[in-house]
Amino acid sequence: MRLPRLVPKDPPPGPARPDFWRSPVRGPWLTAMLGIVLLIGFPIVFVTGVLSHAAYMPQLGNNDVLPRDLDLQFITFDWPTNPVWLYALNQGAHVTIGILLVPVLIAKLWSVIPKLFAWPPAPNAAEVLTKLANLLLVGSAFFQLATGIANIQLWYPWQFNFVVAHFYGGWVLIFSILLHVAIRMPKVRAAMRTNKDLKPLRTNLQNTRPEPYEPHGLVSPNPAPATISRRGVVGLVGAASGALLVTTVGQSVGGPLRSLAVLAPRGNGIAKDGPNGFPINKTAHVANITSAMVDGTWALQLSADGEELELDRQALLSGKLVPLRTYDLPIACVEGWSTTQSWTGVRLSDLSRLVGADPGHVLHVESLQPRGAFRQTTLSKNQAHADRSLLALRVNGVDLSMDHGFPARIIVPALPGVHCTKWVSGLEWSHA
Ligand code: HEM
């Protein structure tokens, strides 16, 4: 359906004129190429995001990663405790791949920018809908990347709840991508066929030629001489993503790359000052934990089906009631960083037996934190009874520091760091 003409027939001078855009490398092939990279990357980031949400096990007791009434719990299941590095891998991939996509998205937008100014702006209803779909796609892509990066840089220039907005923003983005692909796939295929797939990656600058001109397309009607080849553009984008990779991924994979992770918000995770020198998400000060709350009077409250027991730190450390165990386990943050440390403490399953609880019980964990998120969390049956699920009292051979959760903290394999509750005050096993 043609819409009534609201704008002059001829485009005004400037970006609305096709000959304003003169780059000879702009065209369906480059756009399709960048699009294919985004089409591979964004779903991986989306799936790891949804899995991050599932890892919180929002269906259990006190676990409210999103406010209950806002959590439609699309995907929930029993998050495993094996392999121990599962969440570290998931969130490391989420954040790292998300960051790598930034240069690709910017280059993709550069490659299609003439379309943004195409004249007339709204020739027909179909074009209006396509433009609105593109706006939703570009808007949600930038929203996800911008909020994600600001969040991991601990910068919150907004009033809304990050997790809620980022969670649902992810669904909007993935549906916009599906719509976009449905509309554009025929063009992508044609572009790949015309250019014999990757041939432009073997074409040097001297042989770089504009693609065939199509009215209202991406190719310039009046291209300038080439100053960069298409493979040069792909190389530049690849180099930018590569630089981001080298300066970020070390926070997740560790090893020699860790010292290069200069963009890692919490430092590169190399233990600087002593056994407690590894990264911290929330300090005791931020959590309103004072030394008076954790001094010698602290005792752990255990309970199950009316059975109660109180144990102080000495009793736990004595190893008489339940044996002390030491395991090397990762602590993996939602922000993507993770580090493996040597934790010593008592098994949650051993403690459960002191109050007559059994593997059919879930575990509600209470923290000394007077208020704030993750003050109370719930561990599933398999998490509460897994062999290496610990109430940790020491790390790397010394007492936990207050910032790492002294007098005691939860360490469960493959669990998001925020659910490895610090400053534990109570453990309650129950059937729900
Ligand atoms: C640079 C890019 C990105 C960064 C740094 C980033 C960062 C994060 C962080 C830190 C979380 C954990 C939130 C929390 O549990 O507190 C998260 C969760 C999530 N992200 Fe991203 N993200 C990025 C891109 C994306 C994109 C592109 C999508 C969608 C396609 C996405 C979808 C999600 C989803 C669905 C969650 C789960 C939120 C929840 O637990 O409720 N993210 N992201």
Q: Unreliable runs, pLDDT <50, ≥5 residues?
A: none
Count of structural domains: 2
Summing up helix and strand content along with how strands pair, one would put the structural category as alpha+beta
**Rough outline:** elongated
Task: Describe the overall structure.
It is a single chain. A hairpin with a 2-residue loop joins strand 7 (390-395) and strand 8 (398-399). Helices cover 37% and strands 14% of the residues. The chain has nine helices and ten strands. It has two domains: 18-260, no CATH class; 291-430, Sulfite Oxidase, Chain A, domain 2, CATH 3.90.420. 38% of the residues are buried. With 432 residues, it is an alpha+beta fold. The longest helix is centred in the middle third of the chain and has 33 residues, at 162-194. Strands 2-1-10-5-6 form a five-stranded mixed sheet. Bound molecules: protoporphyrin IX containing FE (HEM). The site of protoporphyrin IX containing FE (HEM) has 27 residues, from helix 1, helix 2, helix 3 and helix 4.
How is this structure best summarized?
By secondary structure, this protein is an alpha+beta fold. The protein folds into 2 domains: 18-260, no CATH class; 291-430, Sulfite Oxidase, Chain A, domain 2 (Alpha-Beta Complex), CATH 3.90.420.10. 37% of the residues lie in helices and 14% in strands.
Topology:
Blueprint: H1 28-55, H2 86-116, H3 125-152, H4 162-194, H5 230-246, H6 250-253, E1 299-304, E2 307-312, H7 313-318, E3 324-332, E4 338-347, H8 348-354, E5 362-367, E6 376-379, H9 381-385, E7 390-395, E8 398-399, E9 409-411, E10 424-430
Parallel strand pairs: 1-10
Antiparallel strand pairs: 1-2, 3-4, 4-7, 5-6, 5-10, 7-8, 7-9
The structure holds protoporphyrin IX containing FE.
